[in-house]
Design a protein that fits this description.
Elements: H1 20-71
Length: 82
């Protein structure tokens, strides 16, 4: 198993110190990561909205069923003797 040492801490590299091809590749990667971050943020917002809408729908459905049970006089028309 190879031992990969982390580079020693030092001053950050300036973009001008990198070969042009490497700098361009890194810029492209950063752009792609930025796009992925924005996309995930949008998807997270959409998912949250859908979860909220689903919770509201479930609550309305539950309230409707409870009202129906109450109008029918109890547990779906079942009556328990004491």
């Amino acid at each position: 198993m190879a031992n990969h040492a982390l580079p020693s801490e030092g001053p950050p590299l300036n973009k001008d110190q990198l070969p042009e091809v490497l700098a361009g590749t890194l810029d492209h990667i950063v752009g792609q990561l930025d796009m992925m971050t924005r996309t995930l943020s949008i998807l997270d917002k959409r998912l949250s909205l859908q979860e909220d809408m689903m919770a509201q729908h479930i609550n309305k459905e539950s309230e409707s069923k409870i009202g129906q049970i109450e109008r029918e006089g109890g547990m779906g028309g079942l009556h328990f003797e004491e």
